[in-house]
Amino acid sequence: MDLSDPEELNLQISQFLTQGRECEWLEFKHNNAEPEMIGEYISALANSATLAEVPFAYVIWGICDDDQSVLGTSFSPSTTKIGNEELENWLLRLLNPQVHFTFQSLDYEGQPLVVLQIHAAQQLPVKFKSEEYIRVGSYKKKLKDCAEKERLLWKAFERSSFEHGVAASSLTAEQITQKIDYPAYFELQDLPLPSSRASILEQLADDDLIQSTDTGKWNITNLGAVLFARQLSDFKHLKRKAMRVILYKGINRIETLKEIEGNKGYASGFEELIGYITNILPSNEVIGQALRKDVPMFPELAIRELVANALIHQDFSITGTGPMIEIFEDRMEISNPGLPLVKPERFLNSPPKSRNETMASFLRRVGICEERGSGIDKVVFQTEYYQLPAPIFEVTEQHTVSVLFASKPFREMKKVDRVRACYLHACLKLVQRELMTNNSLRERFNLEVENSAMISRIIKQTMEAKLIKLEDETVGTKSRRYLPWWA
């Protein structure tokens, strides 16, 4: 239901009233708008909507829950405060995960009503003040007291995914084509643009970008919105999921030179995003065969892979944050909300696991990211090929961060940089069905043969860090080959 459309909102309320009763995902109230109660209902109704397999749940103020008579309400969510804090911010702070919800005031049959639309829970039960709630019929109860409901809810989470959730509902065919960049969908797949709107909608539906409804209208799925939105800001709960790009002066975050926030879907806006990044990147001057030329600070293929990974592997249930690219004088940091499902030290040569596999599959299909499992391999290969310091893959409290470093002479690399490069080189060699040697690592650092002893020290330090191991301990020093610790 589009809360911003008064006509549609009135029609939907009429249908709710015709239903004649409350249910697991629908609650009527007159004036009772006690904040604690609202928080508990958001938890209960979000969880119950998932269980009932509906995209949204609703609380409507101004209607008697006994006979569904329209009484009007004095509740005003926009002016309600708890202390000095606005109601909506207070609720968001106490909900975990922060499920998206929207208040809308309207006039219905001459009476003021307020509608609260709540998105169904995704992946985890929604808690309010650390307590999970559920609806049993028209009653709100603690989830821990309803063992069977809890079991069924977790099974529902296993069946559902963020991608198949609803971003916008009950839209006309014309509204779909206004909100979804359908020409980009066909262009990315090298398909001819159909001559009829019906054919366009049919193909979008085949890829689960939109869904038909029983009323002859259409829903846009989260997958459709994040990939092909003309403007992500059209979808309130996805607005913060747009990619931000920040260019800083120097090596810290003290002074910002440029900052933009994308507003297109990830698929339709990807090439424009990569083009913007490469255009604002500083360049390095190199000398080859007596000619000076400028080369990008980072290889474009590595940028593409890490940006695509940040989009694909983010945890959409974490609200208030989104993917971000930060460019410094000496590095680029690419971060996304969510902890990785694979340990960072195994990113290279480990089959990837994604929370958003349907999105990942589509982006692979249209060539935006590499085939399964090869993306990080290519990032490491590119950094070696261009003689850059090895990348870092880090995990913070709520984010995954990938760091590319600008060119740096070997003599300026710290011990930790050299050890990390040695480990990733061993991983890359194994992926290529080869094994690391003193000679291969020396070539990776672009050093002359006389530096072999220095390379041996790096290998020893990496072994002491338990990141690599000897393939065969019985062979002589010159014939030694090395494996990553996990091989």
Key words describing this protein structure:
487 residues; alpha+beta; Methyltransferase, Cobalt-precorrin-4 Transmethylase, Domain 2; Heat Shock Protein 90; 4 domains; six-stranded mixed sheet; four-stranded mixed sheet; 34% helix; 22% strand
Quick structural summary:
This protein is 34% helix and 22% strand.
Characterize the structure shown.
The model is unreliable at 286-292 (pLDDT under 50). The two termini are 53 Å apart. The protein has four domains: 6-159, Methyltransferase, Cobalt-precorrin-4 Transmethylase, Domain 2, CATH 3.30.950; 166-238, no CATH class; 242-408, Heat Shock Protein 90 (2-Layer Sandwich); 410-487, Orthogonal Bundle (Arc Repressor Mutant, subunit A). It has helices at 6-19, 35-52, 87-94, 147-159, 173-179, 182-188, 197-206, 222-228, 270-280, 300-312, 357-365, 375-385, 415-431, 438-444, 452-464, and strands at 26-29, 56-61, 81-82, 85-86, 95-96, 101-108, 111-119, 127-128, 131-136, 139-142, 166-171, 210-212, 218-221, 244-248, 256-261, 283-288, 291-296, 324-327, 331-337, 392-395, 399-405, 468-470, 482-484. A hairpin with a 3-residue loop joins strand 20 (392-395) and strand 21. It has 15 helices and 23 strands. The strands form seven sheets. The chain has a six-stranded mixed sheet with strand order 15-14-18-19-21-20, with helices on one face. The protein has a four-stranded mixed sheet with strand order 1-2-7-6. It is of the alpha+beta class and 487 residues long.
